[in-house]
Amino acid sequence: MYKLIATDLDGTLFNSRGEVSEGNRRAIQKAVEQGVKFVLCSGRAPYEGVSALGEELGLACPGNYYICCSGGLIVEADTLKIAAGNFLPKETARELLRIGEGFFADMGNAAVRLHTTEKMYAKNQEVWDNDLEQRTGRQFLPLPEDIREVEGEITKMLFLSREEGYAMRFYDRMEEVLPEGALGYRMPPALAEYVSANANKGRAVGQLAAILGLSPEETVCVGDGWNDISMLEAAGLGVAVRNAPEDVARHADVVLEYTNDEDAVAKALERYFFGLDNQ
Question: Exposure of 131 by Cβ count < 10 A (0-12 exposed, 13-18 middle, 19+ buried)?
């Protein structure tokens, strides 16, 4: 019997307009009422919309958790207190920055963002300007010359560019020389993300299951992206939505007939938690 479901946000729970549909909302509410552990599992930091969404969906309660930063962070849903962390070593982040800046000579500059448990840091912000500061109420600080001087533990590091294809080219080049201790994800179209080699969604789901006294066999994970592969493989049941790329979907136990625009998460809940099969 499944007792926990962890779902990715962008491309999975969110539809193509970046919204949670009414069908998904109703299914989540029903799951919570039935005692199912519903876990938001995202590459985003808690303050990048995860905690706000959790409050909106009625998940910000004692005993609930969010998995953030592609598995780099597990936080309590009601207090945002860190329950577990898989942090990027500062020396590894320093090496990532050194290598990445070496690419800028022939690829052009990218914005660099670094998130820690305490602060947000940025470099080359003129390359990538958005409303993150306004949305989060947090301000980017200048990235120190010595990255080891940042406050807190590093949860993720991003290289961003609006130039078409830049992020994929950057990711491919970095993969050839990736420092030990780092794990990279391609997030088309705009960014390449780096976390600890010990940080992935699958590992975090396993850590959370242990915190809750559950076995991996009692978990279901739903996703569509490359950073979802680890949890699709680690879960008792890995479920890919129909819009997942083939090289992601092949890692799942099940590929739904429904896309993120067709209430895919609600369909997964109905089929595997509510005992309904709406094929």
Answer: exposed
Buried b (16+ CB within 10 A) or exposed e, 249-267: bebbebbbebbbebbbbbb
Nearest to 225 by CA among 204, 209, 208, 246: 246
pLDDT in tens, 147-187: 999 999 999 999 999 888 898 999 999 999 999 999 999 88
Cα–Cα distance measured from residue 89 to residue 273, given in angstroms and rounded to the nearest whole number:
39
Q: Which residues contact 33 (CB under 8 A, 6 or more apart)?
A: none
Structure tokens at 66: 């969010």
Closest by alpha carbon to 50, among 141, 136, 128, 117? 136
| Per-residue CA distances from 273 to 136, 237, 268 (Å) | 34, 12, 8
Which residue's entry shows tokens 């193509």? Answer: 16
Asked if the peptide bond before residue 142 counts as cis, ω within 30 degrees of 0, the response is no
- Tell which residue, 152, 150, 151, 184, has the closest CA to residue 170: 184
DSSP structure class, residue 125: G
pLDDT in tens, 207-225: 999 999 999 999 999 999 9
- The predicted pLDDT at position 187 comes to 82
pTM of the model: 0.93
- At residue 118's C-alpha, the angle toward residues 69 and 42, to 5°, is 15
Residue 135, amino acid: R
Q: Distance of CA 232 to CAs 109, 143, 162, 226, 229, Å?
A: 34, 35, 30, 10, 5
Complete DSSP assignment for 206-244? HHHHHHHT--GGGEEEEE-SGGGHHHHHHSSEEEE-TTS
pLDDT of residue 130: 67
